Amino acid sequence: MACLERRGPLTLGELAALEHVKPPSVTRMVAGLESHRLVHRESDPDDGRVSLVSVTAAGSRTLQRSRTRKTAYLAKRLAT
Asked: How many separate domains does the chain show?
């Protein structure tokens, strides 16, 4: 999801290439994230055969919570 948040809407193929995984793996991952409403898939306006995937508001909130927890953990570890 972080890649999608940074790069904006991506096709499944673009996402697979950026994440260094095979397209069927990305398709499964996106389906799971989509079922939890963390990402949204829509048809590419330039090519209806292609889907564009983007992070939803709920996905962005989930990423922010995760980043906040990681930052707190690292701060605590660095303080000791």
From this structure: 1
